[in-house]
Amino acid sequence: MAERVASLGKALLVMHAPLDRVVGIDNASRIFQAAKHPKSFVSLDDADHLLSDAGSAAYAARVIAAWASKYVADAPSERGDETVGVLVRETAQGKYQNAVVVGRHRLIADEPVVAGGLDSGPTPYDYLAIALGACTSMTLRVYAEHKKLALGRISVDVRHGKVAAQHCADCGAAAEGREGRIDRFERTIRVEGGVDAALRDKLRAIADKCPVHQTLASASAIVTKVLPSAAATHSPAD
Asked: Exposure winner among 71, 109, 114, 156, fewest CB in 10 A?
């Protein structure tokens, strides 16, 4: 084993849990000692051999992702063209998990376990809330820089839910004349160090000018196309 490890010619990450009852620390130590640099050793604290605890598995995954990023080149575009946009594709892992490709960024979308998913990533509505929160924070930062305001660090908490339109007292025009349930996003903005009443009112008004806020608050056109299968692109008569 030592000879094979020594001749790998690759960066190596060794992970071991001190409480692992399947493989002892001596095995991990021999692998680490035999490996050539670059090499790293990470202790997984109280994890078991199979990483059966979700928290331990998630921690190990984050460590591996961060460590491997130095040695893994950016993946080539999966779109096949230079179109700017978002590609979402099923991973075949679980019932709902989807891989999201945005330029060089890779994300995961999923549903909670109670909904039949793996809870491996934010839900579609979580991503909507993320978009609103991020856009709000960025819009307020642009405003602060433009006005040369010494604004502390901004955080935005966004909660989404569906409520009965006739019972939503603070929904304003969005609920007028509507029946049934509507989407309600509750956004709470915090600024480190605080702000006075006048600036608080101004920030609330500026937050409403966030482009994502404007998109969610207005009607949008969604044009949908379903591509034919490769076999159906040409008829037999062609």
From this structure: 114
